[in-house]
Amino acid sequence: MHVAAVTLLACCLLAVAEDPVKRPEDLLKDKLSQIVDEEMDTDKDGSVTVGELQAWLQAAQVSAVEENVDRQWRYYEPELHDVLSWEGYNPEKKEVLHWDKYKNLTFPDSVHVVQTMIIMLIQLIMFSLSCPLTYLCCTVLNQEPPTEESTSLRDILVKTERRWKTADSNEDGYLEKEEFKLVLHPEESDKMSDVLVLETIEDMDSDKNGEVSLDEYMAHLSKVAGPERDDPAWAQAQQSNFASYLDKNKDGSLSREEMKEWVVPPYDRYEADAWRLMSVADKDNDAKLSKQDIMDHHEYFVSPSWAREEQSEGIKHDEF
Ligand SMILES: [Ca+2]
Ligand SMILES: [Ca+2]
Ligand SMILES: [Ca+2]
Ligand SMILES: [Ca+2]
């Protein structure tokens, strides 16, 4: 789900709490109508272009990411610490968070603490659905005998530590807030793209040969797909996407390089989403959306990824 959609849904949940009489769908439409006027149609000419849509999607993502990072940064209570500048002298006091503290709070080893964490993390999920760290609401580390669940938690710990080390420019174990953001939202920086590709391969590569076969690819998509997974046309479209676009050298598997184009596409994802929304809602094909066009297709604007799924020749990979 796109973060903009999550933000909009979160606004509506708050609105429902304030106005329990109105139907949630009406509240959602009211909110969307307000967003069209105040945020999308920036030149106030009564219609929304691809450029305006793109800017709105990007701004919504940026603000949702910042909000999530702020909230988590405060939760972990960073400490003031001497940080050396890149020249290596004149240490400066900065707010930083150490890996050990993050690890102990995020991967606690007592059931009681875990229960508290689960409640907190479920709240966080609302705001960070695009982040793999939301898998963290699980159970106990280091229990014996190892269960599948504890094994996967250990996997997550290993992956999280790898993200941490990649984000930690001066390798002292401490992250500043901007670096911490990379751990929570690695998709926001090129610096993290290799780590992200590696994580994706590890998640999908069941036979551990370092590449993703068509079977492994389809098994992963079926796991993250909705009810469309039962539609033979959907499976066929995914297979043909794999064969025609992703598997560039046609050897039947996705290498790390091929995975990179899928996980970190070289195009602007906001522009791509904007064009998808345009193609869904632009009835008279003038590359502009009236407010009515948007309200008539409000479900796609509440969750722009729906438009993406509808055009299933595209990549179904937005749950990462
Ligand atoms: Ca406009
Ligand atoms: Ca550091
Ligand atoms: Ca494999
Ligand atoms: Ca290949």
UniProtKB/TrEMBL annotation:
Check the record and name the Pfam families matching this protein.
EF-hand_5, EF-hand_7
Residues of the signal sequence? 1-17
Checking Gene3D superfamilies in the record gives: EF-hand (1.10.238.10)
**Keywords, sorted A to Z:** Calcium, Signal
Superkingdom of the organism of origin: Eukaryota
Q: Which SMART domains match?
A: EFh (SM00054)
Q: Does the keyword Ribonucleoprotein apply?
A: no
- The chain positions of domain EF-hand read 38-63, 155-190, 192-227
PANTHER family the UniProt entry points to: IP16409P, RETICULOCALBIN
**What is the name of this protein?**
CALU
